[in-house]
Each structure stands twice: as C-alpha cells, then as structure tokens.
Amino acid sequence: MVDNVTPLDERLGYLLKTAYARLALRVDAALATLALTARQLALLSVIASDEALSQIEVSARLGVDRTSIVAMLDELERIGLVERRRDERDRRRNTLALTASGRVRVTAAEKARADVEADFLARLDEDSTRRLVAALQALAASSDRRDHARA
Amino acid sequence: MVDNVTPLDERLGYLLKTAYARLALRVDAALATLALTARQLALLSVIASDEALSQIEVSARLGVDRTSIVAMLDELERIGLVERRRDERDRRRNTLALTASGRVRVTAAEKARADVEADFLARLDEDSTRRLVAALQALAASSDRRDHARA
DNA sequence: TATTGTTATACTCTATAACTATA
DNA sequence: TATAGTTATAGAGTATAACAATA
C-alpha cells in the first residue's frame, strides 16, 4: 500500500529498544534474588565508582533527573545500602556513600548483572561483541556533542 | 571502594538505553514537523505494511499492550490518518487501514525517520553499520525464543 | 542571586481487571 | 466458554515549578 516503509526489524530504533527491553527483563529477574532493580544497581554502582559524589553529580552521570534521585536514595537509605552525609565544605551538598552492607550487595549484584550480560551476548562471537560495544560507544559519544550543543 | 564494578559506558544495558534514548529524541524532533511522534509512526508503519491487521495483531507486532493501542488509534482516527473497519467475517475484530491522508503522512514521516537514522549512523562506516544491525537482530532473535519459552 | 536538595504535581507509558459484543 | 475491543485504574518513570537552606 505504502512503499518505502522499512520493516520494524530493520529499524535501528526498534532494534535498540527491543534489545534493551529484553536485556533489562533478564537483569531485573536476576537481581530480584538480591532485592534490587537494575535501576537501583545503576545508582549504587555510580556511588561505588566514586565516593563523595553529590546527588546532582550522580543524577548527571545516570541521566536521571535530580528530583527522581531523591526518592531512589530515600529507599536505598531505608534498606541500609546508602548513606547521605552533609558535605562540611559546602553544606548544600550531600555526599553519597555505600554502607558496608551496600558494598557487599553491589559486589554480588554486579556479578549477577555481568553474568546475565555475558549470557545475553552468547549468540555473538568475541569479535562481534567487541565491535557491537565499540559501535554503541561511538554513537553515544557523537550524540553527546550534539545534545550538549543543543541543550 | 568496591571492585569489579563495570563503568556505565562499558555496560551493554547502559549503552543500548542511551543510544536508543538519543536516537528517539532526534526522531521525535524530526517528526514534530509532521505532527507525529515516533510511537505513532511505528503504529502507522505496521498498519501500512499489512492492511487488514486487527488491533491485537498490531499490538503483538509492536510489543505494545492491546489496551494501549486503543487510545493511540482513537487519536490517529481523530486526526484522520487511520480508519477502524468492522471485519464482516468476524465482527469482534477491527480491520485497520490508513486513510489517503495517512498514506501521504507515513511516506513523508518514513523519509524523515530514515534520514535521522542515517545521520545518527554517520559516525560509523558501512561495514560497522551492517554488523551493528546484524548483531542487534541476532540478540533480538535469540531473546525471542527464551522469552516465549518463559512466557 | 545562584545552587542543592526537596516536595508537589502532572504527564506518559505500561499493566491488570472487568465490561460488551461477538464467536 | 473464549476472544476482540474497550474502559477504568494504578503503578512506574520523567519533567517542571516552587520552596528552604546555603553559598
């Protein structure tokens, strides 16, 4: 009826969205054992990677709005994985740190996440996997510049 | 502090999500001129690719719940791009079809979407692009089997 | 005046349950 | 009984505006 309509499974957008959705389902299933969501693990991992980040710094790295971070931290603090500490050099900021329990949980969860990812990629050979990651990184990097220029 | 924490930009999940989000932003920006969202275009394209699909068939192809399709069709019908027709052979079903205006709009929107995608991929050479798409298709295919087995 | 964290609010997308009409 | 479409509703996730405390 209408020509020039690319089938869904040849569209980059559809493929990226579908691949992400499926990986996310598996990661969430694996993390359920550890009572964590993929979203929470991402936040915990950013905190783990660089202690003393503020809430705004963390939100920028995750690409999540600072107002969304508030509720996530409330929950992670409630279950004892994270601590907010007033930054004494700038009392507007909170410095985020993992608790001992948080460190244990992140280590286990990171292993679970990496296992799921490896299993998800099992269909690809090593070279294809390396090139896939490199291509995605290139797209993210090139997009970064534009997005910042436009923002 | 915690070792074995993979940086975000080496995680497949983060890369897929980020790449998709950025492409989606650009596609939506390009489609705004045509008063369409990427979501609407995906629905229109499925209808265009195979006339006489029912709402449930369309929802399955898109991976969108049938209840969500209802409101989307209401809007597309309201702006005159789509028609619901009772299937006379099974009066429970609606057969979906583009209007003449819908066909014109889809053709223009598909061109805009393809242009954005090509620009988004400009950083990659042809071989890398082909391999990226192939890898994503392989991941989608392998995941399909598992998801169906589990569902 | 500007910034950090916070609350309130709203909007989109998604998922579930229950209804209707048809089979 | 089961299925297609529909409605109502609730839950995530996200974004905006406005506020208090601090710079």
Automatic annotation (TrEMBL), chains A, B:
The keyword Cell inner membrane does not apply. This is MarR family winged helix-turn-helix transcriptional regulator. Pfam families: MarR (PF01047). Keywords: DNA-binding, Transcription, Transcription regulation. InterPro entries: HTH_MarR-typ, WH-like_DNA-bd_sf, WH_DNA-bd_sf. SUPFAM superfamilies: Winged helix' DNA-binding domain (SSF46785). Residues 9-141 form the HTH marR-type domain. It comes from Microbacterium elymi.
